[in-house]
Amino acid sequence: MQVAIPLFPRFTALDAVGPYEVLQRIPSIDVVFVGHRRGEVRTENGMLGVTCDAAFDEVSTPDVVVFPGGIGTRVLVGDEVIRCWLQQVHPRTTFTTSVCTGALLLAAAGLLDGLTATTHWRAAEQLNELGARYVPERIVEHLGQRIITAAGVSSGIDMALRLVELLVDREAAQATQLLIEYDPQPPFDSGALAKADAATKARATEFLQSRK
């Protein structure tokens, strides 16, 4: 089973690497990083480089797509290569999924038209403008349409575990969770917009604006 994770300049590292760490532990799954061209792609702050194994035209029948997000998605909303690739591969995927603002690219390709979906809270309005209906959930599933979207960054790990359950079985998902020792016990309870106070939201916005 092939899982394709697209990479692009200024993607968010954990959006891609979180699901990778989960999915690559299943013996029957082969993860391929795909992009406009082979070679290194740098994350949104430029500090980390990840290698694309293949170009989009070399990966024509992935079983699963996991599209990560990041600041770079904003300039890719109108990218014809990505739009056409998603439209070509989606009819044959088992699941087409996104993490964070990767949902914007699924929406731009018309895959989320009229569907509820989630993304990073800062991109909710843009997601709606692209034809989806944003809901503030960690994971949103439309199994009949073979679409799953995950909210910001860390939620990609949760979604990947759910994918393992759907693709293999529940025990495989639980075993994978054990292998990565994914047992969240955060020191703060501000990981969702509804839980954060005004000062936390202001500081988060300040950090986001400094990265533009």
Describe this structure in words.
Pfam families: DJ-1_PfpI. This is Thiamine biosynthesis protein ThiJ. One of its GO terms (biological process) is regulation of DNA-templated transcription. With 212 residues, this protein is of the alpha/beta class. It has a single domain (2-184), classed as Class I glutamine amidotransferase (GATase) domain (Rossmann fold, 3-Layer(aba) Sandwich), CATH 3.40.50. Helices cover 34% and strands 20% of the residues. The chain has eight helices and eleven strands. It has helices at residues 13-23, 73-76, 80-89, 102-108, 124-129, 155-167, 170-179, 198-209; strands at residues 2-6, 30-35, 39-42, 49-52, 54-55, 64-67, 95-99, 116-117, 133-134, 139-142, 147-150. The protein has a seven-stranded mixed sheet, sandwiched between helices. A two-stranded antiparallel ribbon has the order 3-4. It has a two-stranded parallel sheet with strand order 8-9. Helix 1 links the parallel strand 1 and strand 2 (30-35). Helix 1 runs parallel beside helix 6 (155-167) and helix 6 (155-167) runs antiparallel to helix 7. The protein starts with a strand and ends with a helix.
